[in-house]
């Protein structure tokens, strides 16, 4: 339950008055204490003045300061008298007879203060008598006269301020508190009346039945006034939310967006628009006139300046430094306009790449399909001998296999590039994987008299997809079998091993290729020699699959000529 406004204001006034009262009491106590201290110091100063006159009148010297015993009889018994020369040496002390044993007093606080201010005071324990004193020292031309009063209960009580003022202030405080209560009560009634008045204005003197607000008078007033302007507040809030949504959408959009008024002044521009504008114009400026002065923006400039438009939208493409940007202009009815800039370089390159790949695929499929169709037409339309029929059937079958392998290679390559997340990774033992590949190609190796040597240790393993890594070594070995020639050797070695990576070497001692072809061996459908490929039936995708698979495993692969003349592939894989 909230505290009513009456008690809140009473509490505020009470806090202020308590703070004021405490401040006054503390100030008065401090002033009274200072007054008593000054009075005590004045009395001690009188004692010091009396001693100094006695010394001056009797012309006392260092050897005759003992005569001060006579004046100590007229001083109060509690007063301790000490005379110190300007060098800090004690010349006389009432309570210490052997003054030669006393320390030099030049570093005493009251002596230091008296040296610069003519007099000084300090409360501390005496090193000579082990009693606590209130010291008062006064500096005269020839010496210091110091009088000390024991700092005991009587001295402390003397310096304390009287409590009479505190009692008087407390009585006054109670009287003011009662007065504040009556003032706050009246003020609370006024607030209640003001609340009722606001309700009467809204409801025509009928009380609201749906007051859902804490029972605080000012809070109720705020609630009632809020209901009057409720609809306006809701509208403004909804508009603000929608504006924030729009701004957030623009900020996180990958497109650069700028909105300008009819006089070409910027209303809004997101960060991408600033970035793209700078890259296109090579100027760090948001002035639309500078942007539209670029000759590449001439179609946009002419479109914005047109009076009659068949469409409010215009799109153009701009190429700058190898980047391709799509620029759209939308002109509104009030002649303001919006410019959007989008980097479509990757999209355009992918489109061109897909066109080239589609063309290459169509070209590669055309040969086996044409051969297959020709053989089938011959078998279907011409009566050929059984021997020829069997030959054509076998050739058609081989072409169908080639066509199937080509389709499989294209499918696998597309899956690696576009659906990499679909492959599951696990621990793969390299020795076992290479042995499985070797077993699958044993017949081909024996047919071509190829020696296969692997020095991969049993403990070596990588994190990867077994099927994809299998295809890597299968493609490399098939490549060596097809193009390396007969009576060659294939070697798979581990050149180096670190905590995280393996560096493998695959090479054959075959025919190899010329240096100018090395940089293009991993390209799709690239062939070193068209005639040679037709004889072996290769599609030109094997090494491209190898490279993309290694990259999918966050590794690396390079190719070079081996010292034997064949090809050597250097492969890095993560363990």
3D architecture notes:
This protein has 575 residues and is of the alpha+beta class. It folds into 4 domains: 1-228, 2-Layer Sandwich (Beta-Lactamase), CATH 3.30.450.20; 251-343, PAS domain (Beta-Lactamase, 2-Layer Sandwich); 348-417, Signal transduction histidine kinase, dimerisation/phosphotransfer (DHp) domain (Helix Hairpins, Orthogonal Bundle); 423-574, 2-Layer Sandwich (Heat Shock Protein 90), CATH 3.30.565. Helices cover 52% and strands 19% of the residues. The protein has 17 helices and 17 strands. It has helices at 5-57, 69-72, 109-117, 153-159, 164-203, 217-228, 230-252, 271-281, 288-293, 298-305, 345-381, 386-418, 430-440, 442-447, 466-484, 530-536, 542-552, and strands spanning 80-85, 90-93, 119-125, 132-139, 143-150, 256-260, 266-269, 313-320, 323-331, 337-343, 426-429, 451-454, 461-464, 489-497, 501-508, 556-561, 567-574. The strands form 4 sheets. The protein has a 5-stranded antiparallel β-sheet. Strands 7-6-10-9-8 form a 5-stranded antiparallel β-sheet, sandwiched between helices. Helix 5 (164-203) packs parallel to helix 6 (217-228), helix 11 (345-381) runs antiparallel to helix 12 and helix 15 (466-484) packs antiparallel against helix 17 (542-552). It starts with a helix and ends with a strand. 22% of the residues are buried.
């Amino acid at each position: 339950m909230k505290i009513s406004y009456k008690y809140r204001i009473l509490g505020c006034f009470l806090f202020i008055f308590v703070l004021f009262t405490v401040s006054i009491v503390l100030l008065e106590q401090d002033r009274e204490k200072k007054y008593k201290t000054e009075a005590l110091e004045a009395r001690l100063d009188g004692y010091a003045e009396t001693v100094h006159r006695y010394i001056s009148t009797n012309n006392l010297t260092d050897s005759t300061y003992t005569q001060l015993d006579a004046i100590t009889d007229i001083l109060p018994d509690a007063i301790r008298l000490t005379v110190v020369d300007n060098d800090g040496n004690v010349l006389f002390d009432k309570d210490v007879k052997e003054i030669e044993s006393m320390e030099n007093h030049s570093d005493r606080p009251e002596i230091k203060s008296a040296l610069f201010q003519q007099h000084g005071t300090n409360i501390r324990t005496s090193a000579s008598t082990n009693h606590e004193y209130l010291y008062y020292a006064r500096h005269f031309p020839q010496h210091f006269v110091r009088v000390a009063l024991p700092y005991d209960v009587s001295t402390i009580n003397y310096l304390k301020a009287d409590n009479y003022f505190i009692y008087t202030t407390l009585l006054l405080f109670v009287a003011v508190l009662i007065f504040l209560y009556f003032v706050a009560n009246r003020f609370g009634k006024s607030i209640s009346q003001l609340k009722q008045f606001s309700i009467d204005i809204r409801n025509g003197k009928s009380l609201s039945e749906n007051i859902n607000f804490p029972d605080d008078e000012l809070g109720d007033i705020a609630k009632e006034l809020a209901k009057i302007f409720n609809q306006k507040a809701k509208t403004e809030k909804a508009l603000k939310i929608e504006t924030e949504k729009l701004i957030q959408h623009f900020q996180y959009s990958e497109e650069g967006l700028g909105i300008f008024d009819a006089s070409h002044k910027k209303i809004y521009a997101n960060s991408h628009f600033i970035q793209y504008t700078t890259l296109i114009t090579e100027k760090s400026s948001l002035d639309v006139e500078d942007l539209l002065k670029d000759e590449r923006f001439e179609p946009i400039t002419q479109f914005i300046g047109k009076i009659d438009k068949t469409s409010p939208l215009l799109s153009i493409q701009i190429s700058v430094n190898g980047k391709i940007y799509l620029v759209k202009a939308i002109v509104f009815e009030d002649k303001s306009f919006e410019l959007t800039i989008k980097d479509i370089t990757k999209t355009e390159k992918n489109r061109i790449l897909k066109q080239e790949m589609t063309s290459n695929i169509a070209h590669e499929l055309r040969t086996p399909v044409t051969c297959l169709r020709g053989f089938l037409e011959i078998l279907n339309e011409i009566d050929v001998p059984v021997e020829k029929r069997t030959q054509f059937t076998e050739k058609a079958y081989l072409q169908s296999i080639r066509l199937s392998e080509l389709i499989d290679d294209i499918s696998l390559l597309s899956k690696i590039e576009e659906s990499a997340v679909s492959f599951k990774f696990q621990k793969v033992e390299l020795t076992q994987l290479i042995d499985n590949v070797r077993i699958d190609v044993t017949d081909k190796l024996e047919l071509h008299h190829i020696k296969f040597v692997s020095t991969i240790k049993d403990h070596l393993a990588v994190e990867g997809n077994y099927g994809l890594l299998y295809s890597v070594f299968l493609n490399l070995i098939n490549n060596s079998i097809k193009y390396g020639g007969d009576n060659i050797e294939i070697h798979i070695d581990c050149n180096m091993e670190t905590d995280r990576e393996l560096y493998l070497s695959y090479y054959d001692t075959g025919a190899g290729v010329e240096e100018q072809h090395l940089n293009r061996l991993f390209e799709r459908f690239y062939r070193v020699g068209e005639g040679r490929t037709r004889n072996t039936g290769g599609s030109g995708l094997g090494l491209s699959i190898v490279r993309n698979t290694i990259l999918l495993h966050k590794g690396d692969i390079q190719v070079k000529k081996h010292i034997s003349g064949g090809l050597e592939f250097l492969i890095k894989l993560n363990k």
